[in-house]
Amino acid sequence: MDDVKIGEILEPGDEDTRRDRENRVRGKFWKTVGRAARQVPFMEDLVAAYYCAFDLETPHRVRGILLAALAYFVLPIDGIPDFLAFVGFSDDVAVLTVALAAIRAHITPAHYEAARAALRDAGMEDSAESNNV
Fold this sequence. Notes:
The chain is an all-alpha fold. The protein is 67% helix and 0% strand.
């Protein structure tokens, strides 16, 4: 994926766009995490980003960027369909990597603690620990 396309994907968008993305992410995030657990090399960061995106203390622009990246992650059909073995989440990983690099300073220790607890409760802590970079 080139930088222009990723930049377009990560546009925070207007209020209606953010609200639509928020609803889509809330509805599909955990199911997608379950499918991607072994393919995304930074699952704890991804789940912490989810908590950061829904934290009202997070600046609006950062929330918009995160919601855009997370909405792309939960879409069933995107640049490379997620159901393709081994490569399905590669475009999602590229978008998420860029988004996380741009907003990393806004993900707090509380977001990471919530992520670890959620992964532990979902029985995915092994995947998060072994894949976390």
